[in-house]
Amino acid sequence: MKINNNNPSVKQAIQIISEAIEQSNSKIIKQQLALFNPAEIAHIIDALPAGERPYLFNCIPKGSDGEVLLHMSEVAATQLADTMDVEALHHATKAMDTADVAELLDEVLDKETGDDLLDSMDNQRRERVEVNLSYEEGTAGRLMHTDAITVRSDVTLATVQRYLQRHDKVPEDTNVLMVVDRDNHFLGTISILNLLLSPPEKKVADVMEEDSRIIRPETPEKEVIQLFENHDLYSAPVVDEQGYFLGRIVVDDVMDSMRDQADHAMLGSVGLDDEEDLFAPILSSAGRRNVWLALNLLTAFLASWVIGLFEVTLKEIVALAVLMPIVASMGGIAGSQTLTLTIRGLAMRQIVDSNTSFLLKKELGIGIINGLLWAVVVAIATYFWFNSDIAIIIGIALILNMIAAALAGIIIPLTLRRMGIDPALSGAVILTTITDVVGFMSFLGLATLFLL
């Protein structure tokens, strides 16, 4: 379960706990943490400096360790997991669902520690975790829970009710029971509501729903998200090609995936990855950001080189230097709008080969219309500021750059996707380079041709 970061009680707790840490008052810290669920505790720990997290982690309620690690940022969770031995990790994860344990093994623990944790489990639990791990990251097989309750279609509802009463704990988010045959082939689902309201002498086959939306384990997470969104699903069965029931995916996991993808897109747009930790030490944070800064420096040198080609023109007509940022900036903004919409369309699988040409024509039209509109506005302002000759030049340059920006905004992410590169991570840098180079080249080039 994710939390609302605007929850005032969580914000207040962060302040109280920060003061309690300074006073080494573990009693207050434990009292505060006991008020929150694991997701909220994870948010509180993430919001404190890295050096204070181990002390705070030791104060969380017993039995919540694993869930808290799972909801924390990857870097912070890895840091804390390194301080725990295998016995402590086993205790922390024994109540967790196998899909959550698989995520912890894959994203937080190093291989040696993960192998030791698997060895500490009983055979049945280890096999269930390994089922999740057998599927690639970012697929339905990694999301699915193997703890779903299954019933046979030929038994009565009364039998099912007695069967459920023998369970000490029903898996969380259970709104339906999965109906299977003797060989574990998936047949359908029966809702808890129908189970309670239907006559107990009826058989499961009489009230079950056979048209359930099934998901293959290799289905990409993005398709799973879209399926849940389009059909308002709360849970869905995961079934292999032979029809065997493997597990279930619930909406809570889908919401987590949606948030992770949103975080990835937001951080990727400025060159940061999902491992970025706001409260990490200075040196490690600086190191993570330097790669992106270096890449931007290269693109900046490229734009500066283009400007340097027109050094004589700039010396003769100083007004060009004043107006240059307008052309590049307008193109950058226009291209960013198209780029953002295209990346969103790719993420939602709205863009396919058959509609790409339409999108190109549409963006070309938008680039022409907006280019003409703002070229007139900028040209009029330039005319009163400087003179008519420069006004015409900047107007033409603006049209050219707006058209180039619109086309680049859709071509760049499509090309990167075909190359297997995430457009959200590198699209913005390439787009900025193109709009800067085209903007400076067109404006200064036209000025050199017609004004000198």
First-residue to last-residue Cα separation: 66 Å
Which secondary-structure class do the elements indicate?
Answer: mainly alpha
**Helical segment count:** 22
Proportion of beta-strand residues: 5-15%
- Architecture per CATH nomenclature, i.e. the level-2 architecture of the largest domain: Orthogonal Bundle
Globular, elongated, flat, extended or rod-shaped: what is the shape? globular
Radius of gyration: 29 Å
Within the CATH hierarchy, at the fold level, what is the topology of the largest domain?
Answer: Tetracycline Repressor, domain 2
User: What fraction, in percent, of the residue positions are helical?
Assistant: 55-70%
Main beta sheet strand tally, sense and closure? 3 strands, mixed
Detailed description of the structure:
- The strands form 2 sheets. A 3-stranded mixed sheet has the order 1-2-3. It has a two-stranded antiparallel ribbon with strand order 4-5.
- It has 3 domains: 8-138, MgtE N-terminal domain-like (MgtE N-terminal fold, Alpha Horseshoe); 150-268, CBS-domain (Roll); 282-451, Tetracycline Repressor, domain 2 (Orthogonal Bundle), CATH 1.10.357.
- The chain has 22 helices and 5 strands.
- β2 (176-180) and β3 (186-191) form a beta hairpin.
- With 452 residues, the chain is mainly alpha-helical.
- The protein has helices at 8-22, 26-33, 38-46, 53-57, 65-71, 74-81, 86-93, 98-107, 111-119, 123-133, 140-143, 157-165, 192-197, 204-207, 221-231, 251-268, 282-308, 311-316, 319-347, 353-385, 388-418, 423-451; strands at 150-152, 176-180, 186-191, 235-239, 245-250.
